[in-house]
Design brief:
Helix content: 55-70%
Number of helices: 5
Length: 143
């Protein structure tokens, strides 16, 4: 029987919180607990799940820091590492963002009976102000 090896560079606490906050991201998109009352829903959404997405940005920075910390690197090496890291994060953001944008666009046209121009205008505005999913952009919402 082959012996399982543990990676020495894993951090259990980071992995645990990634799991918890991944569930929170799903809860954000599925509007979990909305059936249990508006106040419970808003408390859960704004007090707990609102930390999920920023946590993943912090994790990205943490792992980037671990990658370059303690190494004797030249200035150009740092730029290359950061450029590669940014490209690695940008590709899935654009791919999944475009898919989500398309789904929201069709939803706006079919369910909300908006014309294509209104739906595009609203979708592009939401993407620029918040994210491909629109998020809660409060005072920036188009009327």
């Amino acid at each position: 029987m082959a012996e399982l090896k543990m990676k020495s560079n894993t951090v259990s606490a980071v992995d645990l919180f990634k799991c918890i906050f991944a569930i929170c991201v799903v809860a954000i998109h599925t509007m979990a607990f909305k059936d249990h009352g508006e106040s419970a829903y808003f408390a859960f959404t704004y007090c707990i799940t609102s930390f999920a997405v920023p946590y993943f940005f912090v994790c990205s920075g943490y792992f980037l820091g671990r990658k370059i910390y303690g190494k004797d690197l030249q200035k150009s090496d740092y730029r290359l590492i950061i450029k590669n890291y940014a490209q690695r994060l940008l590709k899935p953001y654009l791919i999944w963002g475009c898919w989500y944008f398309l789904i929201v666009l069709v939803n706006e046209i079919v369910r909300n009976h908006k014309n294509v121009i209104e739906a595009l205008k609203s979708g592009i505005h939401n993407w620029i102000v918040s994210s491909p999913g629109g998020g809660d952009y409060g005072m920036f919402k188009l009327s």
